[in-house]
Design a protein that fits this description.
Layout: H1 2-36, H2 38-41, E1 45-46, E2 49-50, H3 51-82
Antiparallel strand pairs: 1-2
Helix pairs in contact: 1-3
Protein name: Solute:sodium symporter, small subunit domain-containing protein
Domain Sodium symporter small subunit: 9-85
Keywords: Membrane, Transmembrane, Transmembrane helix
């Protein structure tokens, strides 16, 4: 019984760690690059506009989509490692 509890704790700990990393990356890209660091990125041209504007309009959305696919892939792998796959 104790072994199952430690497995559950390890699974949820890995899950929360993964969610936390994904949220930090998303916050840095959307809020950091798109808002806070935009003046520093304004000198870099991307597609006729500056890099800060690109992150605010396109980049954060693309990174968010990449995070969704990464999270799904990694959770499937984590589920298999802990024997809770569907």
């Amino acid at each position: 019984m104790a072994n199952n509890s430690s497995d559950d704790t390890a699974y949820w700990s890995a899950n929360i760690r993964l969610v936390s990393v994904c949220l930090v990356i998303w916050a840095i890209v959307s809020f950091g690059f798109g808002i806070l660091l935009r003046p520093m990125l304004s000198g870099i041209a991307v597609g006729g506009s500056d890099l800060g504007f690109w992150f605010a309009q396109q980049g954060s959305i693309l990174v968010f989509l990449a995070i969704i696919f990464f999270y799904a892939w990694r959770m499937n792998k984590l589920d298999a490692e802990h024997g809770v796959e569907e």
